[in-house]
Amino acid sequence: MTSTTPTPVSAVGRPQPSATRAGRGTRRRLRKDLLRSRIAAWSAVVVIGAFGLLPVYWLLATALSTPESTFQFPPKLVPTDLTLSNFTALAENDQLINYMVNSLVVASITAVLSVIVATYMGYSFSKFRYRGRRSLMHLVLASQMFPQALLLVTLYTVFSSFGMLNTYSALVLSFTTFTMPLCVWMLKGIFDTIPDALLEAASIDGASRWRTLHSIVAPLAAPGMIAAGLFAFVRGWNDFIFALTLAGKEKQTLPPGLVSTYIGEFQTAWPQLMAASLVVSVPVIVAFMFLQRYLVGGMTAGSVKS
Amino acid sequence: MTTSGISRRGALRMFGIGALGAVGAGVLGACAPSGAGSPSNGGDPKSKDFDFTSWSLNEEAAKPSIEKIIAAWEKAEKSTIRAVSYPYNEYLSQLTLKLGGGETTGAVHLDIAWLAAMAQMGKLVDLGSVAGKGGYTDVALKSGTYDGKHYGLPWNTGSIGVIANSQLLEKAGIKEHPTTVEEFESALRELKGLGGGVVPYAAATKVAQLKDIFPWMQTFGCAMLDGGKVTIGDDASVDAVTWYKKLHDEKLIAADVDRFDARALFGQGKAAFYDDAIIGKGVTSAQSKDKTLADAMQPMERPVLKAGDTPQALLWGGVIAIVKGKGQDAATEFALHTTTDRATTSEYFAARALPPSTTAGLAAPEVAKDTFTTEWTRKITSTATGSPFWQFAQNAQIEEAVAKQVQAVLVGKSKPKDAMKQAGEEAAALIKR
């Protein structure tokens, strides 16, 4: 039965008390759900962030600590005895500058060489059809299948036979051996995304194949080339075992240099090692800050086919 | 099909190419440099100039004193010594590669644990005619011997033994060092009673350092290797591991401890005993905030199973070996001078606290007045022996195989008897390889 009592004007358009309560409840629930999902999302961000940043924090904290507090047990999350002596000591070590220069030279040449060779190889694999193309592509990839230690012995023997030990060339060539396969496949993927119609148009306009690659394709593939170069640079910068084995004292790069200097038979000078690691990371961090958008773009450029 | 997709045919092709590559790598490997396969690494053996390879040439603490020795030799002999160095942890693999490849010549600093593996390469000079002139102690001379030949002139001879913190022992009412395993256990319980997070014995419990259990196995009567047969798995080894597990379960030793952790605990007065080389005193006290710790550190004979047994310890130290080839004669003279010249060894001792290997060197006033060193030499080094597994190139793998089984016991994943049987079988298989 419906009520015939007229609804007061003031009550028109106003929700019934029970409906109001229900609406409030829903909104509260929604707000709670939203809050919960936000908390979950932020918790995930904090956990992932901590996973990535805690080692960096620990590196910084150790670099600013005294040797005694480094070995404190249980360790303290926030160091109390702060010191800059580990950084000032670096300035007195001329050898570190030498290691850094060697690393910069070797990693830069490796990056440039890898990109140049990989560009031609990747372009060839992507845009030309010839007998043995697929086998060659797989052969390039196959070199990644060997354990590095196995190749180390072989490369050492070969470089020794050619009198190339303790030279930049030995380091650059060995690093390039490992960086090239990924660079070739990365750039091939990028060249695959460039439509053949563009190449045909260039050909109709009278551009030679050489000109087409250098003037049309290469600028389009530049982000990928930078990404490949960065990958090769980092590989060359971080390598330890090849640099230790193939380079002598004068051509030693940073990773074996730092290990030799700070990790000894009886103890490790952790604070100095961390300070040195922090300082020598600066050039790579700066390079990444400027070029990271190319790295991300270049890595994913060949992943979607039109 | 996309051009970058890998079909089954493509995978087979890659496998074929990989196999071809492996053959190619083998062929390239055969392009060995001049020294490979030859007993000599080439060059004029009479040359006055030679190389000296040592891991210590990189290390901040050791570098200045070794460079001083080199500079003095160069000045006196009007020759040039080229210093070569690799980090300690990579030293053996680098040296194996470079000695085999013919790159390493001259004098080579070796850990005594590596001597056998290096000697087996056939490139080291037999120094028998020189070793007798040095006045080395018997233990030291033995440390440079492999297969009856003197391949290394001992530079520093010490051992790995137990170091005690006299302050903590005093606090726990322990007046004398325990001499038997039973007394040791009682002392550990007394120390545990001190509370305050004290780990009575910071024994190694991480795989990387669990080879420290070997002297305990020997203490319980396990020879480890007898006439070429691995004896790990016998009752004595099982008893040793069972005892170690008991200490672990009673929290008389702590989980997840290696040498670095043990030094940290000991340095903070949280451990009463730990195993280290003789150099441990300098390293641990340098890390400690307690500047009186060095005085409280005492070398202790490893407790024996029953009174009258010989205390066990692992021999530890370095020798200088000579590679056949360039500068061999001058390098031999240099090695003899470095390891036996009294002034040189005393100065080196003063800088690094590494005990000399000669009788005269140990008797030098600078060394003799160091109570810790003389006590250590008398109590620990005098009965120390090398590991029977050092003679095998697979030594590191054998140590790891045993260590993994011991750890399996400690964490309760395996019974001592089964674990030691497994460890023995793995060690025997590695030796046969």
Overview of the molecule:
- Chain A: It holds the Pfam family BPD_transp_1.
- Chain A: The chain crosses the membrane at residues 39-60, 99-123, 135-159, 171-191, 212-234, 269-291.
- Chain A: It comes from [Kitasatospora] papulosa.
- Chain A: This is Carbohydrate ABC transporter permease.
- Chain A: It is a multi-pass membrane protein.
- The complex is a heterodimer of chains A (306) and B (433).
- Chain A has helices at 17-63, 67-70, 85-91, 94-127, 133-142, 148-161, 168-192, 196-204, 209-220, 222-238, 241-246, 254-262, 270-301.
- With 306 residues, chain A is an all-alpha fold.
- Chain A has 2 domains: 20-63; 87-301, Orthogonal Bundle (MetI-like fold).
- The longest helix of chain A has 47 residues, at 17-63.
- The model of chain A is unreliable at 1-5 (pLDDT under 50).
- Chain B has 433 residues and is α/β, with parallel strands linked by helices.
- Chain B has 2 domains: 50-157 and 315-383, Periplasmic binding protein-like II (D-Maltodextrin-Binding Protein, domain 2); 159-311 and 388-432, Periplasmic binding protein-like II (D-Maltodextrin-Binding Protein, domain 2).
- In chain B, 47% of the residues lie in helices and 14% in strands.
- Chain B has 20 helices and 12 strands.
- In chain B, strands 1, 2, 3, 6, 7, 10, 11 and 12 form an 8-stranded mixed beta sheet that branches.
- Chain B is globular and about 65 Å long.
- Chains A and B meet through helix 5, helix 6, helix 7, helix 11 and helix 12 of A and helix 1, helix 3, helix 11 and helix 12 of B.
